[in-house]
Design a protein that fits this description.
This protein is an alpha+beta fold. It folds into two domains: 7-175, PvuII Endonuclease, Chain A, CATH 3.40.210; 184-254, Arc Repressor Mutant, subunit A, CATH 1.10.10. It has helices at residues 16-31, 81-89, 166-175, 184-200, 207-211, 214-220, 227-240, and strands at residues 43-44, 54-55, 62-68, 75-80, 95-102, 107-114, 124-126, 141-145, 155-159, 162-163, 204-206, 244-248, 251-254. A hairpin with a 2-residue loop joins strand 9 (155-159) and strand 10 (162-163). The longest helix has 17 residues, at 184-200. The radius of gyration is 20 Å and the shape is globular. The two termini are 30 Å apart. 31% of the residues are buried. The structure holds zinc ion. Zinc ion binds at residues 34, 36-37, 39, 56, 58-59, 61.
Length: 255
């Protein structure tokens, strides 16, 4: 993977945002690969749509690229809130590449891949409507809250100027791919319980450890009053996906 942006292409552009867009999109088309199959390249969408920038010609996976020069923090500004909610409910969210470049050396510094199946309503935050003075007054955007996504689904592709091996990226992508078979609500539950277990920071944990997070989980799913049965159901699902091992007697191991 070549990490230098093709800066010679940008000379004709005066606007910094146009320049960044051209450079990072050209870079992505030349260097990013499909994490879902063995395709070495992605195709740029000719007709630019609001959220899809690239697709895989082999497996039809779709991708969005978000580029910025400041470090990838805990929130990424995304599309309109309602558009995103509808896309999540309909399983139409693309995989997201979050890219950070160094504007002084025009190099790609960090790339994080968030698989499409990792998006649930729990990681979407509604922003305040734009003020009346704004060009798009009243428009309501959303943030993707990276910290609400389990670490398993934040896949490092480039870290501090060093590219990961594509086989590792693909392995990480496939680990949770079973989530694609679930509808948005079920997937959200599984992701939230996985995230809760990861944050316990223990290899071995008990059902009581997870029950202790009941309130947090209830806050994410206010319409659901049967939190404990839901927790147990997610543990079974995570076991079936090979992420949690049942040791018996309400004890579990993270794999
Ligand atoms: Zn593919």
């Amino acid at each position: 993977m070549q990490l230098r942006l093709p800066v010679h292409l940008a000379e004709a552009y005066k606007s910094p945002s146009q320049r960044t867009r051209l450079l990072t999109e050209t870079w992505a088309a030349e260097n990013l690969y499909c994490p879902s199959c063995d395709a070495d390249h992605l195709q740029a969408c000719k007709q630019s749509t609001p959220v899809v920038d690239f697709f895989c010609a082999h497996c039809s996976s779709i991708f969005q690229l978000k580029s910025q020069s400041k470090p990838i923090g805990m929130r990424i500004l995304d599309a309109a809130y309602q558009t995103m909610v509808e896309a999540i409910r309909a399983n139409r969210v693309p995989n997201l590449w979050a890219l950070q470049y160094d504007p002084s050396g025009w190099r790609v510094q960090n790339v994080l891949l968030i698989p499409s199946y990792a998006f649930s309503l729990s990681c979407i935050e509604q922003r305040k409507p734009l003020q009346r003075t704004a060009r798009r007054a009243g428009w309501v955007g959303c943030n993707i809250v990276i910290s609400s996504i389990p670490a398993d689904a934040r896949i490092p592709v480039v870290t501090e100027g060093k590219a990961a091996n594509p086989s590792e990226v693909r392995r990480a992508y496939r680990r949770l791919v079973g989530l694609t078979r679930l509808d948005a609500e079920a997937r959200g539950w599984t992701l939230d319980v996985l995230h809760a277990i990861r944050r316990l920071g223990k290899d071995l944990f008990s059902l009581q450890d997870v029950y202790a997070l009941e309130e947090q989980l209830a806050a994410l799913h206010p319409q659901n009053r049967h939190i404990r049965p839901k927790i147990r159901q997610q543990l079974q699902r995570l076991r079936d996906m090979g992420l949690v091992e049942f040791l018996g007697g309400g004890r579990y191991r993270v794999r």
